[in-house]
Design brief:
Helices cover about 75% and strands about 0% of the residues. By secondary structure, the chain is an all-alpha fold.
Length: about 170
């Protein structure tokens, strides 16, 4: 027999959904950001070293390429989850955006730039995988990962950002 939902149990679930879940997602999103940057940094190091140094594209290079893209996808999913439960974004209306640069940044610019960056990263990863020579794989990975990293660096709400200042880590 199914157990009936009591009002207090439903209230507890809703309370968790609206208070704790955004904080958990925000903490994970803040933490995974560093994994994305580290993965891209390692990927770019290996790509430029291989491209400019004439190295062979090893299985480790392929793993770095794939892992960097996968971690970025996890970060994007966390970002979308945060976008849909965030009270800051819930108050976003494009017609009012001129009055609040932080709301405009998180409601539109951050999500658009990060989505674009992950699309660029994914395209670069897929194109690098399909190249036939070592040099072409490294060059493709280097150029596309660089473009993605630049977009990501611009769209992160750094503590010194003029659009939306946030700490390096949000516990």
């Amino acid at each position: 027999m199914a157990r009936a939902w009591s009002g207090s149990r439903l209230a507890a679930i809703l309370h968790f959904h609206y208070t704790r879940m955004p904080l958990i997602i925000l903490t994970l999103h803040s933490l995974v950001r560093w994994a994305v940057l580290a993965g891209l940094g390692l990927g770019l190091f290996r790509a430029y070293r291989g491209w400019l140094g004439g190295w062979s594209f090893t299985p480790f290079d392929d793993t770095v390429r794939h892992t960097a893209a996968t971690v970025a996808h996890v970060q994007l999913v966390l970002g979308y989850a945060l976008y849909f439960v965030s009270p800051l974004v819930a108050s976003f209306h494009l017609r009012d955006a001129a009055h609040g640069p932080t709301t405009l940044f998180f409601g539109l610019q951050h999500v658009a730039a990060m989505t674009t960056a992950i699309v660029v990263l994914t395209a670069g990863s897929a194109l690098a995988k399909r190249q036939t020579t070592n040099q072409a794989k490294f060059r493709t990975m280097a150029l596309w990962f660089t473009a993605a990293l630049l977009l990501i660096l611009v769209a992160i709400p750094w503590p010194f950002s003029p659009w939306a200042s946030r700490p390096y880590f949000r516990p």
